[in-house]
Amino acid sequence: MDGPSRALIYGALVFAGIFLQALVTAASSAFAPKRQLPIQAVLEDPHASILFMLVAVLIAPVVEEIVFRGYIIVIARTFGVTPSILATGALFGLLHARSCGAAGGR
Q1: Full-prediction pTM beyond 0.70?
Q2: How high is the mean pLDDT of the chain?
Q3: Most buried residue, 19, 65, 67, 79, by most Cβ within 10 Å?
Q4: What is the tally of structural domains in the chain?
Q5: Which runs of consecutive H residues, i.e. helices, occur in 31-72?
Q6: Is 33 left (phi over 0), alpha (psi -120 to 50) or beta?
Q7: Cα distance between residue 80 and residue 58, in whole Å
Q8: pLDDT in tens, 53-63
Q9: Higher-confidence residue: 106 or 21?
Q10: Residue 56 falls within a domain, yes or no?
Q11: Does some domain include residue 74?
Q12: Residue 65: exposed, middle, or buried by beta-carbon count in 10 A (0-12, 13-18, 19+)?
């Protein structure tokens, strides 16, 4: 067999994910926001919280999958599989970069 086994690779990926989560949690604790985040105000109202969770957990991922896998990657595939995956991944990351900064309160 050439190289490491799949189980070893998957185990390393799971370990890396757990390590990254612990690192982000530690950084979030060390650099806590100085003021209340806008999301905290939304989550104080129970009805708004339920609506927000439904949209965030059910609707947004479905719409993102339809847009990115159904439209954008099909159009980008004319440039080849690898460039289309890289381009849609970069676009996805750019569209979510602001929310990553907002989560940190910056």
Answers
A1: no
A2: 84
A3: 67
A4: 1
A5: 38-43, 46-54, 60-65
A6: beta
A7: 31
A8: 898 889 988 98
A9: 21
A10: yes
A11: yes
A12: exposed
From the number of C-beta atoms within 10 Å of its C-beta (0-12, 13-18, 19+), residue 6 rates as exposed
Q: What pLDDT does residue 105 have?
A: 47
Res 91: pLDDT: 86
CB 105 within 8 A of CB 35: yes
Asked if residue 94 is part of any domain, the answer here is: yes
pLDDT of residue 14: 93
Q: Which domain holds residue 79?
A: 33-103
Distance CA 31, CA 101 (A): 13
Kindly list the distances between the CA atom of residue 54 and the CA atoms of 23, 48, 57, 83, 101, in Å, as whole numbers in the listed order. Answer: 28, 10, 5, 34, 23
Q: Which residue has the higher pLDDT, 39 or 45?
A: 45
- Reference 76, options 85, 67, 63, 89; nearest CA is 85
8 within domain boundaries: no
Tokens of 75: 């159009």
Sign of the CA dihedral with 62 first, then 89, 16, and 10 last: positive
